[in-house]
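Need Short transient receptor potential channel 4-associated protein's 3D structure for a figure. Predict it.
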Amino acid sequence: MATLLGSESPCTGGKRRNCTSNIVTKFTASKITGQGFSRGTQLPGGLLQERDKRAKWHGIPTLLQKLYESSHPNSDLSHAHSFLKVLSSQLSMEAMSFVTEDRKTAQESTFPNTYTFDLFGGVDLLVEILMRPTLTMQKKKPKMNDDLVKDCLSVLYNCCICTEGVTKSLAARDDFVLFLFTLMTNKKTFLQTATLIEDILGVKKEMIQLEGIPNLSGLVQSFDQQQLANFCRILSVTISEPDVGNDDKHTLLAKNAQQKRNASPSRAEVNQVTLLNIPGFIERLCKLATRKVSEATGANFLQELEDWYTWLDNALVLDALMQMATEEAEQSSTESSDESSLATSPLRHRLPQSMKIVHEIMYKVEVLYVLCVLLMGRQRNQVHKMLAEFRLIPGLNNLFDKLIWRKYTASNHVVHGQNENCDCSPEISFKIQFLRLLQSFSDHHENKYLLLNSQELNELSAISMKANIPEVEALVNTDRSLVCDGKKGLLTRILTVMKREPPDSSFRFWQARAVESFLRGATSYADQMFLLKRGLLEHILFCIIDSGCTSRDVLQSYFDLLGELMKFNIDAFKRFNKYVNTPEKFQTFLTQINSSLVDSNMLVRCIVLSLDRFESQTEDVKVVEVLSECCLLSYMARVENRLSFLFRLINIINVQTLTQENVSCLNTSLVILMLARRKAKLPFYLNALREKEYAEKYPGCLLNNFHNLLRFWQRHYLNKDKDSTCLENSSCIPFSYWKETVSVLLGSDRTSLCAIASYIDEPFMDLDRDLLED
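Structure prediction for Short transient receptor potential channel 4-associated protein:
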């Protein structure tokens, strides 16, 4: 028998005592080199039995030999199945301990049975057995027993979670991964298949291409609603860009370079298009997202839910129980009977009410995630049109009180960060995913008015009429048949629950982001007044000044929301002055702003822009009154305060550290200088920057840094239509003026009083000349 070390027998002479370790060593080496032993069937049965007790293999190599011998092509697989059942029972105990206890690092000492099973070729053997029908030349493929397939898949999954490297080795086999999708057509093996695929795709180096799955459209259309919900867990891996950390923390320099290298659509983008081309796919997701479930009752609901969650690690146990309920009721596979048949299942009635709720919530999380990713993709307008047509927003509004935001005490909240992948309960994940979806839905899109009901739309029209300003075109064009039903729209409901959240609750971050996205884009006075009338400004100021909130994420979201709410709105500044009615309150407010300009600079930009507009409206008595009385406007009107903000905004960023999160600091500094240029005061500001450099004893550093930042700005924004549109809409300054101002500042003529170069002494010129060179 050939071995890794030549033709020498594995057990000879004085080496006999090391026989067991030699066998293990050679099997391990063969997996790495591809040479030598490939499976335990190559060893004599007597040798395996002799060494079994000493090595504590528990008969697994011998059982694998019998499984191999009884699973040859054209053989009766009933005998093979009996051996597999014995193996499965030995491995399942280890898998269950891994799922229900604290997860430990998968290693030989922790899970010896699965380690031995894989070492002696068990994983490869099961893959061969499963794929055997695909290797036949017969037109009619032989059908394997469903229970055999289920047991093969379950054992493979157990090996994946208990033995390091198994999942990656399976993920490397593209033929096997694509084959697994074909098994999903069988409802009896669907759950086991979906669970294994989810695990494999999570570690696969290259994202799978959905268009490579045989008859994907037919496969998806064959799913009932419960299967489709489960399938969304798989889809989430295939349509999201690879997770390489927090997107906001990636430098724009690196991201721009990446986009240059990868000009063609990514695999995730291609997969999104593939899904959108499946007939009825989006409509069914909307039905899943908005279908109703039984309302939970009882004071102990949350505790009961938390108890279940502690052992429902990845829904494996929960899905198995729900499948048992389905099978017991002998439910048909047609979509129309899903909810009614599940409701009449005897076992489902025996499951705890909270378990049914969690089951539905966990699936809705995945469905909302898929919809959210598609909303942020290149086909955004196509997706928007379909979500509106299939009444996603009214459906979610009807679920809000009964499922999405049921009433319970604040003490039950757990503060979580804003990472959507955080390890938190289904209840929390559901709320966050819901808010993220609303944020994506509203952001810079005319469909945002679907978040209101008919009465609220009429209120917006009345506000515009009273102020003698035309209604926003998007409001006029809103299809009233697609808006929210009931006494309140979704936007109003979010405002209501936001006011009840504890000061540092992470939900506040996402709630503020969702409301802010409604206000983004071209400023609408009616939209602002709609929210001001509901006390939003006072609530935000309370949180910033009086609540004791210390979360930087929550404070940043409130600064951004406050900026959108107050921009160009004289009534908002009047309300601000009424709330911030003491020097102590105003000082606290300024302290919060100054504690992190990266977080608060959008609010600073709003104040600067609003002040500039109000100063041009001095014929309006109301404006003049607020200008003279408002402490915030008076503070920003002092040039030394604007210069102080400008110094710090430029100083806290540089080209190498620019990210999507802090690039707003650069744009806010540009806004200050553009408004100065309009008033022919740009030379004054540039000279003040030069004097600041010399006062701080670092001549040239500030201005050279700003020069480099503006060079990057040209490269970044002149090639990104969306970003330039956002800049124009949010500032009401034509983008042509942005470009012109940057060009003037970067002018090479050292005699120009508006060129940065004129204010840098020759010895300190171009400290970072090659910073942006390719």
